[in-house]
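Known limitations

Structure tokens in this collection are predictions and should be treated as such. Users comparing against experimental data should check residue numbering before alignment. To illustrate the layout, the record for SSS sodium solute transporter superfamily is reproduced below. The input appears on top and the generated tokens appear beneath it.
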Amino acid sequence: MFTALDWIVLFAYLLLSLAIGLWVSRGNKNLKEYMFGGGSMPWVAVGISLIATSVSATTFLGAPADVYGDDMTFLMFQIGALLSIFVVGFVFIPRFRTSGISSAYELFEVRFGSRSVRRLAAVFYCLHLLLRTGILLYAPSLVLAQTLHIDLKLAIIVSAAIAIFYTWFGGIKAVIWTDVMQFCVFFGGGVLVLLIIANQVGGFGEMATLASEAGKTRWWNPSMDVSNARTLISAGFAYAILEIAIRGCDQQFVQRYLSCKDVKAANRSSVLSMVLGCAVSILFYWVGAALFVFYKKSQVATLPEGLGQNDVFPYFIVNALPSGVTGLIVAAICAAAMSSLSGAINSLSNTSERDFLGWDESAGMGGLKRAKIWTVVWGVLGVFFALFAATQQGSLLKNAIFFTGLFTGPLLGMFLLAFFADKVFGTAEKALRAWVVIVAVLCGMASLVLFQGIPAFGVKAVFGGIFSWPWLPFISMTTTIVVALVVNFVANVVCAKRK
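Generated tokens:
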């Protein structure tokens, strides 16, 4: 039951988030300060912010539910994350830092000489992040509404309003420093839950033994079955492509790399985020195993009849935690939701100002005012998409997976083509390069329909079931690059014959 003490803890956390946003806003004198913190943010804080934005409330709630119903084999995703760190550190970050760009997608105009390609990439990014933000805001709000016994729409609007407010005031500084606090609450909440459960089932040793007997600690599956997401080839290799696409192509990440003072600091922040991400995964997978021991093996308490695995952790939060601790855990869910939204709307604001309107360094406070307006606009649109997600009857997870592969894979292909443009396109003119890239990207997006269909419209896949979901970005990325090579070759042959 949510007591008065729980409400006090929750409100105290929300007020502290607002206070941090107001405090750090004092140093924002221009657009560069607002978007990049003057390029002097501490790499430790940036690294924590990167993982706080990445994990979201779905990790807090979804990871325990996954282990409760299955096992820890998704821990193999960390192998893919480790591989991605090397690629991003050696290929992406140095090029971003030395190219003089202030937006990830500005690179396309530099390399291809085409504002159209740049804006196309920015549109893809905005659509993907807006859809993702709506889902990430809706999912925890659903739990908050059930836990606090309030209307779902109210839960969405309140948590979003606070994130929009402190992001509007403080910009990237507010996002990063509130992320640090939110990560501490998020991670500390998970540790506290694990300690409470271990204490009630006979200690960590007994809990680990019972979890192992139930098969919940199984994390390694060396199978090469590409149709199963819980295998080494899918979780280790294919997921690495998804991680590279997110860590290397997402403006949220690039913006934070550019907020560090140099390449070394940016790489340190990236490595730290990977290490913390691994720690978060292990922690919350163990929370899921502990919940299984608590309810099924030790039977310290019983669950209501027909309760689904996704509802076990929220039920535990409300009914099994001491007064005050429940408020802290609910605050952790709010923390994860607000972190996802604040980082998203700040990067979308930068993309809007820089990629769509063009950022004039001499604009001074005028550019800063526009950026703040964009922050509110994208925040409101995020709320709209969250409310829209609440009306959908289909699987939000399937739709989210489809759109992730639809946009992230082609974007990664575009960046790789841009990085190695001279080798790929040779002496081809930039106008031809831009045309080839656009055709290739559209083909890359279309390729997913063959393997995934279009869940939102009920379109079935022609080759459904061959590849599991981690392979979707790999498929769309590979198609994009292959088509670009083929089309470029054909175009060069045709041009040579005309000459």
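For this record: The two ends are 79 Å apart (CA to CA). Residues 152-201 form the longest helix (50 residues). Please report discrepancies through the issue tracker.
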